[in-house]
Amino acid sequence: MMRELGLDAYRFSLSWARILPNGLANKVSDAGVEFYNNYIDEMIKYGITPMVTLSHWDLPQKLQNLGGFVNPLFPEWFEDYARVVFKNFGDRVKHWITFNEPKEFCYQGYGGATKAPLLNITDVGTYYCARTLLLTHARAYRVYENEFKNFQGGTGDFIGVNHYTSSFVSATEHKRIHPVPSLYDDIDVGTYIPPEWPKSASPWLVQTPNSLYDALINLHERYNGPIFYIMENGWSSSPDADIFDDDRIRYYRAALNDALNALEDGVDLRGFMAWSLMDNFEWLEGYGTRFGLYRVNFSDPGRERTPRKSAFVYKQIIKSRVIDEEYDPETLDMTID
User: Fold this and answer.
1) Is 330 a catalytic site residue?
2) Exactly one of 4, 76, 101, 104 is catalytic; which is it?
């Protein structure tokens, strides 16, 4: 699928437990390391740059049983895990991300109960998790800088942006009652989504005009012009939607135009990753929504994958480096160019 689309980069996450079955570095799975070695080597073989996230919300169960992010030893565990990863894959992986969407799992998993581990410690959970996460990120970053960067030549010095949607905010209107204290009580604003904004199959996801551009410009100005990669951006459809996903095409064209406009206005944007390559299990919605450029038949034991119309449009944009609003694929037969 990556080759069919013509991708030159792909972001994926590692399963901590697949590499360290007990969560700790005293036992490394040779099979787990071999799996990722093969995966990385195959990508590089076809000119696809691997961009690797160390943790995407799936802690080893043993470490979660010990408290996960509320255990003060967590930064040490993660440092040991990161060292194993850098040692085994850092000769080929040059772009590293420590945690995917830290606010989401700290707020929803520790301050709330919509993501694992469902602790719902509304008063301190989000902040305790965030404190541990910042200390953990710093330790992993220093391990790479001090022990690996000089001879591996990789980096984590960029901002990865996951952007899907936005809303209007107000200091006085549309406010909700939140637990006190809590993250959203401290933020203390109301949010509003105009009813005319196009809606996806996910209740939280609407298409917002120019929001990716605005976000990139804001971050560019706030943080003195760092390097950016769009790590996630995408649109959901219902499981029974057909492969002619014109709403997803409209969304991607608008987002890529935002990215191009930001680039032209001085943002150092170096890459864009669609969410997602193929349908997957979504954390809140399971198989109830589909984000893939490729449709996956989950009723088929072989998980048949079929390119949606958006896959052909995305491929054409990659190949031509032009966002052609009039382009309509003549065929839905996907080939490797």
Assistant:
1) no
2) 101
